[in-house]
């Protein structure tokens, strides 16, 4: 009976045991990236006022799906171009786009029917496409966080789709992958500091600037006590979920080579065990730094985002650094993020976490990685020679800084074009009336919270209460 279930396979190498081991590994990493989206949602659900919580969840999920789905259309094919170029495939750009866009043969054909001489490790690369979609979903979820409680759904969806479908893939091609143009010259990344965090940070800065602050954020407003978190317990739960999901997700940012070891995505020599230790060490350093700031300023938010500050701030170093180095880098990262937040507050930019974490922490991460990994070998691809020989390039601060400059310029120009265009056409911001009554009621006809949102309200997070008073005191 069993023999009847054994079907002939055209190319058995594509579905070998080792191939399936890698498939399972990257599939788990993909699931954990999706859990990161959930963690970001929980953090935001606690930071917004109750009258906006339902809409926050709906917008975040749709933004994540749009960004991830848009990336699958042609974004993954853009990233694949680097390997086609490294392998000397004729018309590398056209062939990569033809093979790996959403309707291409490598995406629509079962791996056992693809010739490994033409499409090696097809099954693994197909699973990696799902990993990239989850990566794009994280970008969409983070971008949504920059416009909480005031940006309309339509422009938010357009921003997520364009960023996830075009801008993030282009930066992935340039900076993430062992044969990418900048990596192949010495730029080093691991968790996507350039292509995800710095890009999102720049777009978030432009969005928060053009949308303006929420009513009552910096100046008193007669209709509201201002945007104060209604339940930091939700945010704390989101941080815990993030701590569980991120290690497995980030370990997917590398190559497993049986018999040779684990290599970072830029072809740096690493170790699965050391990378795992480093990730948790970044939680310790960032969390302790955030806790010091939180107790010093009586601002509980920093105690929560310190963990994220730690792993983002050491994101380019996690595969090459020693645990004690990661502890120091992540500890300092919390203070960099806090300094960025204070700078934004001075310029009346209403964003407490995305720009400080992604842009401030991301730039710091890139520069710190150049110091921690200074002299380590990187770039190239397995089995190649010449300009793409494995580990022919060297990590150094200069190339890391150049990578930051290129990323900020590309993200800045594209972000300004897209967000200004949306501002001048469909508009970015909800009406003041809808903002005051709450987006749950405005969009979904959900009943308003049982408490008013005025200056005299006793609703937790409405503008009064112990936590609100402390936050107001800190921010003033």
UniProtKB/TrEMBL annotation:
One of its GO terms (molecular function) is ammonium channel activity. InterPro entries: Ammonium/urea_transptr (IPR029020), NH4_transpt_AmtB-like_dom (IPR024041). Keywords: Ammonia transport, Membrane, Transmembrane, Transmembrane helix, Transport. It comes from the Bacteria. One of its GO terms (biological process) is ammonium homeostasis. It holds the Pfam family Ammonium_transp. Residues 447-476 are annotated as: Disordered. SUPFAM superfamilies: Ammonium transporter (SSF111352). The chain crosses the membrane at residues 24-45, 57-79, 124-143, 155-174, 194-211, 232-257, 269-294, 301-318, 324-344, 356-375, 399-422. It is a multi-pass membrane protein. It is found in: Membrane. GO terms for cellular component: plasma membrane. Residues 24-442 form the Ammonium transporter AmtB-like domain. Its main location: membrane. Belongs to the ammonia transporter channel (TC 1.A.11.2) family. PANTHER family: AMMONIUM TRANSPORTER (PTHR11730). This is Ammonium transporter. The lineage of its organism: Bacteria, Bacillati, Actinomycetota, Actinomycetes, Pseudonocardiales.
